[in-house]
Write a structure and sequence with these properties.
alpha+beta, 3-stranded antiparallel beta sheet, flat
Length: 418
């Protein structure tokens, strides 16, 4: 018969084994989690970018665009290629034949309020940078219902955490964008309002709509134009997001390389001596380094410069990491680094490839579409408002509203990048 002490020892041993296995399992799970970071399982799960995830990644991108030299340069280059030549907006209208539609467009585009928030190059660059960090813009268009004056306001995407309200019969048609925000007034509580999508203009426009179990105010006077790039699940993904892990890896590599070079630079010479004379040799080497003069060595001792030719860990070894950063941002690595490298030519570092120009041209086309939509909305409001500078007739197609100007008025909008 086994005594009690033996059973207790066996139990303690088993418990220790279980504890050890649990710790090992936790290490394995943590290892798999690190390997799976940034990846989603195929099948069995339908993950999507949550509002918290988008907010966190946007914050990372904002910080990187400000403090990481590589990503700061990349974002500056992209915005410069798109907006450095400015943009010109006009219509094909002939002022001598009917109403002067061009005057309305010029008045909107040169409005001091609009220039400060949207139409100036500085404002457009700010919006392009937000596409780089957040991946989307929520452009509200506050409208004076009497005069038809339209302004532009960029609202924080984080205030639109909830999914948009869509047509029950067609999920592709967005009706409202729920916005939850806290007014600037001291002690004000957060509130939720609904902004209609810019294309949603039903004949009957209720003041409130049921949302999340309560009646919520609808801001018909401030529709939203949602601008998104790299869309996932209908929401934008910042241009910088794909480059963040590679930029961090490249920064870490350069930090390690700089540390190694700093360590090697502190080793001036190598002394070879007998074991019983190590301290004396070290003292002589220290005196040599301090005084910068000769030193007397005992018979058999050697003093020679450290040979670092075998240290093949150089700064160019991290270039593949920089290539991944450049690829994520559609830039040639030579342009991103501002250095053609050992085998490149100066002209290569100073020019952008045709592939990159194609990407920037597509982004310009996106902005041309955004500007056209906003200017078209301004023309509509100028014709609809009782005191607006234009006249026109309203035509409806379901929940969409169109404004037809009198014959002779051409409202075709031209957006040109000189």
């Amino acid at each position: 018969m086994t005594d009690t002490s033996t059973l207790e020892a066996q139990l303690a041993g088993a418990q220790a084994t279980i504890l050890l296995m649990q710790e090992a399992l936790a290490d394995v799970e943590a290892s798999f989690a690190r390997e799976d970071a940034g990846w989603s399982a195929v099948g069995g799960r339908e993950d999507k970018f949550t509002a918290e995830f988008r907010k966190a990644r946007s914050a990372d991108a904002v910080a990187a665009a400000a403090f990481d030299p590589l990503l700061k340069r990349a974002l500056n280059l992209r915005t410069a290629y798109i907006w450095a030549g400015d943009v010109q907006v006009s219509t094909r209208d002939d002022a001598e034949n009917g109403q002067d539609v061009n005057a309305v467009v010029r008045g909107f585009w040169s409005d001091d309020d609009v220039r400060e928030t949207f139409s100036s190059v500085q404002a457009l660059i700010t919006h392009e940078r937000q596409l780089g960090t957040h991946g989307e813009l929520m452009l509200a268009l506050p409208t004076d219902q009497r005069t038809g004056r339209v302004r532009v306001r960029s609202l924080p995407p984080a205030e639109f955490a909830a999914d948009p309200i869509t047509d029950p019969e067609d999920a592709a048609l967005v009706r409202y964008w729920p916005r939850t925000y806290t007014p600037k007034a001291a002690g004000a509580a957060s509130r939720t309002v609904l902004h209609p999508n810019i294309t949603y203009r039903p004949a009957l426009r209720p003041k409130t709509v049921e949302h999340a179990g309560q009646q919520v105010e609808v801001r018909w006077d401030a529709p939203i134009l949602h601008v998104a790039v790299n869309q996932v699940g209908g929401r934008g993904v910042g241009d910088l997001w794909a480059s963040l892990p590679w930029a961090r890896a490249y920064k870490g590599f350069l930090s390690d390389w700089a540390g190694l070079m700093r360590a090697l630079s502190r080793i001036a010479v190598k002394a070879t001596t007998r074991g019983d004379r190590v301290q004396q040799a070290a003292a002589k080497v220290a005196a040599l380094a301090e005084a910068g003069s000769g030193v007397a060595l005992a018979h058999g001792d050697q003093l020679e410069a450290l040979n670092t030719s075998g240290a093949r860990f150089d700064a160019d070894s991290g270039r593949p990491l920089a290539v991944m950063v450049a690829a994520a941002l559609d830039l040639p690595v030579t342009t991103l680094l501002g250095d053609p490298g050992a085998t490149g030519a100066r002209a290569v570092a100073e020019n952008v490839s045709e592939e990159s120009w194609a990407v920037f041209s597509v982004r310009q086309d996106l902005w041309a579409s955004v500007i056209s939509q906003i200017v078209a909305y301004a023309i509509d409001q100028a014709a609809i408002a009782p005191l607006g500078p234009l006249t026109g007739t309203i035509r409806r197609d379901g929940d969409r509203q169109y404004v037809d100007l009198p014959e002779g008025d051409n409202r075709t909008i031209i957006v040109a990048f000189p």
